[in-house]
Amino acid sequence: MASAHDVAKYILEKQGSMTAMKLQKLLYYCQAWSLVWDERPIFDEEIQAWANGPVVYEIYDFHRGAFRVSSWPKGDVANLDAAARDTIDGVLTVYGNKTAQWLSDLTHQEAPWRDARAGCSPGESCSNAIQHAAMNEYYGSL
Q1: How far is CA 126 from the centre of its chain?
Q2: What is the pLDDT of residues 16-49, one digit of tens each?
Q3: Among 56, 52, 1, which residue's Cα sits nearest to residue 28?
Q4: What is the pTM of this model?
Q5: Cα–Cα distance for residue pair 91/50, rounded to 1 Å
């Protein structure tokens, strides 16, 4: 299975420079739609329900302190099979032209992030995982 680093590298190669926040949201939507379209996760890393939306900590830890990212030295796009590439391309077609803030606002309206943050107040630090089952159920119903 591919890693979140493989997916991040592919996204940046296709889209070019973007904010770290936007990269995080695109990774989230790649995972969500892979669960629906491909019936499998696209990467193993957990997605956490942070105050500004979903975050893959392993990716955050790598770009910590950077506002923008333009390339990803870690990961290998060769680890992505055709189905994974198709899923990422589909996500980029729909979400790739949106701003980081727009994507963050969208995740805040959707059940998987909201439910994972149950019991956390707005702006409060939270590392609760967004469950695959919740993502699959919510996005599969759209």
Answers
A1: 17
A2: 999 999 999 999 999 999 999 999 999 999 999 9
A3: 56
A4: 0.97
A5: 21
